[in-house]
Amino acid sequence: MAELFTIPTNGTVTYPGADILIFGSDFAHSEYVIPMARFKFYTATGADSEASSIYIRLGGAFNTQLSNQYQEATGIFGSVKAGQDIGGITGLIGSLFDTGGTALQSSIIKSLGAGAGFVSSAGQSGKSQIEFLTRQAFNSFQQLIYQGPKFRAFQLPFNMKPTSYEEAKTMRNIIQTFRIASSPRASSGNLKELDAVKGAKSAIEELALVAAKVGKSEDEKALIDAGQFDVTAFNANADLKSNAPLTFGYPDMCKLDLVLYHNNIKDISVVFQSDFCMIDNVTLDYGASNKMVFLANPTSVAAGDYFPSEVNMTIALRESVLVTAEYASGQNSSGKITIF
C-alpha cells in the first residue's frame, strides 16, 4: 500500500495472465458461435504492450457514433454555389456590411426614432423596439459554421458471470489488465529519456534552469545560460523532497475488434475494427440485485481466493484518429468489415 499523501513510484509494471485472456466462450458456452470484443494493447508510442490480448463476450448492442460539430453564427451574407467565384464574393463583403443589414437597421431606427417611434418608445428608440412596433424582425443572416470532426467514443458494457472457478480467475486478470493499462506510469525512470536528449544536463537541472529564468531580464537570463547559476544550491532550497514524480508516463492504448468466435475455430470473422483508442474510463459494479455472492475454491472452501459471481464492467474508449471522408472511404473497401 502507498504511504499517506504520496504517489507510488517504486516497483515494476507487471500484467497478469497468459498471452491471451478469454472470457465467455469456454465451459458452458463452448458450443456456440459468439460475438466477442477483442482488445489488443499498445504502449503510448504504438509499440506492442506486454499486456495480454483480451477476448470478452459482447453483451447487448454495440453503438458507434460519427459526430461533426457545427456552430451557429450571425451576419453571414450570401451563399456559395458550385462553380461560383470565391474571389468575387470576398470583394463584396465590405459593401454588404456598408449597405446591408447593419446600415439598413441603423437608418430605419434613426428615421422612426425622430417621429412616432420616439414617442412610442419614450425616447429610447432601438432595434428591439422597432421590431416590436412593426411586428417584423430583422434578418440576422444565421448560418451553421463547421467546427470540425469529433473523436469517436465507444461505450462497452460487459456482464461477466463466471461459470467456474477458473473462469473467475480469468475475469480477475481481465479487470486487472484494464486497470493497469488505463493508468499512468509514475516511475521516476520516465526522466531518463529526457536526460539522453538534453545531453550533459539532467532533466532535473533543465527544470531548475527554466525555473530560475522566470521573471528575469534578458541580461540575467544570458548569465544563467552561461553557467553562472548554482543548480545544486537551487535544488537544495527547492521543495524536491517529495516522492511525487516530475512526469507521468502516458497510459497504454488499445485497438478494439469485434469478432465472431468459436472455441474450436477461434476467430471466424472480424466485423469491426477501430484505430488506436485511449481508455477513458473503467467502471466496475460488483454484485447484482443488491447482493453479492462469491465463488469459492472447489477443492477447499476454507482455502484459496474468493471471486464475486457477477461483475458488470463498462469500458469507455475514445478513438485517437479523426474520421475524414478519405478515412471512411478506405474503411468501406476493407474486406469483411460490416460494422463501421
The backbone outline, from C-alpha atoms, is: extended
User: Helix proportion of residues, in percent?
Assistant: 25-40%
Rounded average pLDDT:
78
* Whole-number tally of structural domains: 3
Please give the largest β-sheet.
Answer: 8 strands, mixed
Terminal Cα span: 43 Å
Query: Rounded to an integer, what's the Rg over CA atoms?
Result: 32 Å
Find the structural class using helix and strand composition: alpha+beta
Q: Low-confidence spans: pLDDT under 50, at least 5 residues?
A: 190-198
Series of H and E elements:
EEEEHHHHEEHHHHHEEEEEEH
Number of DSSP-assigned strands: 12
Describe the structure.
- With 340 residues, the protein is an alpha+beta fold.
- It has three domains: 20-66 and 152-186 and 248-332, no CATH class; 69-148, no CATH class; 189-237, no CATH class.
- Helix content is 29%, strand content 24%.
- The strands form three sheets. Strands 1, 2, 3, 6, 7, 8, 9 and 12 form an eight-stranded mixed sheet that branches. It has a two-stranded antiparallel sheet with strand order 4-5. It has a two-stranded antiparallel ribbon with strand order 10-11.
- Helix 1 runs parallel beside helix 2 (101-113).
- The longest helix is centred in the middle third of the chain and has 17 residues, at 165-181.
- The two termini are 43 Å apart.
